[in-house]
Amino acid sequence: MVATAVGLALVLAACGGDDDGGDNGSGGGGDGGSAEGPTGSVSINSTQPENPLIPTTTNEVGGGNIVDAMWTGLVSYDSETGEPQLAMAESIEPNEDFTQFTITIKDGWTFHDDTPVTAQSFVDAWNFGAYGPNAQLNQYFFGPDGANIAGYDAVAGQTDDTGAFIEGSATSETMSGLEVVDERTFTVTLGSPNSLFETIIGYSAFYPMPESFFTDQAAFIEHPIGNGPFEFVEEVPNTSINLRAWEDYPGDPKPQVENIEYRIYADLDAAYADVVANQLDILDKIPPVGLAGDVWKTDLEGRSASEPLTTRFTSLTFPLTNTQAWADPNLRKAISLAIDREAVIAAAYGPGNYVPANSWVPPGNDGYVEGTCGEWCEYNPERAQELYAQSPGVQGTLLISSNADGGHREWVEAACTSIRDTLGIDCQGDFNPDFGSFRARVNANEITNPFRTGWVADYPSIQNFLAPLYTTNGSANDGGYSNPQFDELIQQAAGLEGQEALDLYNQAEELLAEDMAIIPLWYDNGQRGWSENVNEPQFTWKGYVDPLSISVKS
């Protein structure tokens, strides 16, 4: 998700230490709730979702957390480890070469409007997400570098150089690889072997949709309907989105709180002040104002935690489709070499609170290789000046675009100081006031200078840190990077398992280092806090609170 998320991401999107008190994997439960059902209300910090709460077009954190609370997919991910496990699926049976899967869903499951969840609910939702004219941001996940469902190309159609759908290029509305067998069973035939299929389909793009979505999408957008543990109550734009526990939820575990308010903050500092004052119950990210001098450990003593995250990283992306200004790799490498990552982290967040990145895949993931970025992620003023002199240089002021909220202004300004001091060029931040307005510019391909990107994993695999972000027309490929060799390696790896697959992913990373179209900056350490009103909650492998773990104190 673009946060990135991760991305997912997406952060998208999409994506790690010091520790003030140990792992919080046990989370919630404790003395909250009651035997009679969920009790109490809690508030969680959030951002205004970038898009309507439709799973096939929600790929950023603000909307993603809410969608995940409202839906249950075929597969879920263990809150602590991220390991995939059956959820709505009763069984998923692959053939010998991972080209066909027979999926049977559990009986008796309904949507929040009491209509049944059937095999057709999944097939219709997936076809809608893949259909080119629908322009869904998660369309990519049904194609060759995602699930790779047979017939995807005919449904997706073609796009132009900017990624926009070419009218009339889709020759079918349904993928040939999807077939409903009966009310609870459907088969999925793939275009080529995909050993990650069962892991990928836990991502929100693969959630089922009720019939009402297809008959009246405008009404659905006003009041979205899922099949998960929490149901939609109301949205107050730019203020809050409110959910309540769905009393007929057949899954396990059950909600422990009755109401959740996802409270939207334009300024993370305000969210931090509220959680310190017990006016906000859960904060999943401590902003620079709290990290500086480690004051958060005192402000939130006994109700905070930190642990390295393997799912989040921050990067700097060059726009390659709407300008030729950044076409020279030497210029891109020079800027990366001019960023003193440790100094920027110290200035923006306090020393040691984030970890300088040396790879496009965070440590802790299978396939992580230390230093795949090579010399290009090391601070080297002399080498930076040498490469800059060999490049066309920057015309005028170097701008770095970002949203000003979420604690990003501080690091952008610190990075500009490092670049300015090293290369002797003017560098300034180009800020949008909030995440939504910033991402609107990114998605519209309007930014012509380097801009902030981030990623939170959609599913636990090295593939998710590479394919969506850097394959040609990938769902989170914000800069338009394209390398046919990279695409080929990613597609080959999808059909393999174990070390054979990891070797190909690592080769693909080497190409990213050669091109340096996306600069890795740092990994997240996952500092978070909560109020005195709730028991200690569990945070997921993505670093966000697990809503099913939240309980209020008696």
Short summary of the structure?
This protein is α+β, with helices and mostly antiparallel strands and 554 residues long. It has 17 helices and 19 strands. Helix 11 (341-349) runs antiparallel to helix 13 (409-423), helix 15 (462-470) packs antiparallel against helix 16 and helix 15 (462-470) crosses helix 17 (498-515).
Architecture overview:
- This protein is α+β, with helices and mostly antiparallel strands.
- It folds into two domains: 192 residues, Alpha-Beta Complex (Dipeptide-binding Protein, domain 1), CATH 3.90.76.10; 219 residues, Dipeptide-binding Protein, domain 3 (Roll), CATH 3.10.105.10.
- The chain has 17 helices and 19 strands.
- The strands form six sheets. A four-stranded mixed β-sheet has the order 1-10-9-8, with helices on one face. A four-stranded antiparallel β-sheet has the order 4-5-7-6, covered by helices on one side.
- The longest helix has 18 residues.
- The protein is globular, with a radius of gyration of 22 Å.
- The N terminus is likely disordered.
- This is ABC transporter substrate-binding protein.
- It holds the Pfam family SBP_bac_5.
- GO terms for molecular function: peptide transmembrane transporter activity.
- It comes from Jiangella rhizosphaerae.
